[in-house]
Amino acid sequence: MVIEGETGSSRYLTDYRYGSHRLLVAVFCRIADGATPSVALLDTGSEWCVLPPEVAQESGFDLMPDPATAPLHTRFGLIYGRLERVTITLIADQGHDLDVPATCFLSEDWPGPLVLGWKGFLERIRFSVDPNEEPFYFASL
User: What are residue 72's DSSP bridge partners?
Assistant: First the structure.
């Protein structure tokens, strides 16, 4: 596979356990210049990236819901929150890390894992997964 632009790849994890959650495809990233890598659910069906409340607070974000932001429909029900611009860095095992200016949904009521969703993140990069060898390839647009 050939992807042009700044490129990188890393392994991804399948069926990764995060508390009571099972992440079908999990990748490694950093949030807002955080030093500690995080494991995130790679979810092409998720409308937005979603930060767990503790991650959002550690990064200095306000969790007060914005009445202008539509609630997020989730398997946990409707979640009220706000949208914020957050830099998410995909961590490369090979090649280069990739900084992505992402739009994330933040809510103190989110009980799930860190989610990398379609709008405002995956639509802004080139990516692929290879189920035979389990690399996650990513590149800038």
Answer: 79
- Domains of the chain: which residue ranges? 7-140
Q: Rounded to an integer, what distance in angstroms lies between the CA atom of residue 42 and that of residue 40?
A: 6
> How far apart, in whole angstroms, are the C-alpha atoms of residue 30 and residue 33?
6
Question: Are the CB atoms for 137 and 128 separated by under 8 Å?
Answer: yes
Burial of 85 from C-beta contacts in 10 A (0-12 / 13-18 / 19+): exposed
Domain 7-140, architecture per CATH: Beta Barrel (2.40)
At 129 the three-state DSSP class reads strand
Stretches in the chain below the pLDDT threshold 70: 1-6
The answer to whether 132 and 15 are in contact (CB under 8 A) is no
The pTM (predicted TM-score) of the whole model is: 0.92
Q: How far apart are CA 25 and CA 42, in angstroms?
A: 6
Written as one letter, the residue type at 47 is E
